[in-house]
Request: fold
Amino acid sequence: MKNITVLISGNGTNLQAIIDNVKAGKINGKIVAVISNKADAFGLERAKKADIPTYFIGHKGITREEHEQKIIDILEKEKVDLVVLAGYMRVLTSLFVGKYKNRLINIHPALLPAFPGTDGYGDTWNYGCKVGGCTVHFVDEGVDTGPIIIQRANEIREDDTLETFKQRGLDIEHQALPEAVKLFCDDKLKIEGRKVKIEK
Reply:
């Protein structure tokens, strides 16, 4: 069974999807900590409700590396196998990424390599795309550039608004991220260069 830590900055709906899948026995892992850089992130309440240890690690007044080291100290104590970024709104430095290479995954609300950055839904919508989606990927030193584990499409309908497109996208995210976590915990993911092979 793998030890999982989830990093969040906000509402934590993707965190909730992982919690639900772990509780249902679909993921061979245990969430040992939820860490947020924002004290008022609602995801912390979700974790507390599920009896998961929570941590607020503020980043104001310290360097990125100092902030990340505080997180690393918790991860080391908890003997973490997998770190999941679920709406974590900070770019990680090479200190953190290097330490958790191939054990650090992120969900991004666009079909990478299109529309990296903080507003995948808005960028997809404003560009006039016919199809959006989400990407779960391993994290490397770039911004949303790591090897792709799973992608799911979200067709943009004629009667969509940005909000309906985004809501449907979140539902898709809530399926894709737990699936990627499950594959990792089952040792089904093999990285070969830029490609992630899913073993049967």
About this structure: The domain at 2-198 is CATH 3.40.50.170 (Rossmann fold).
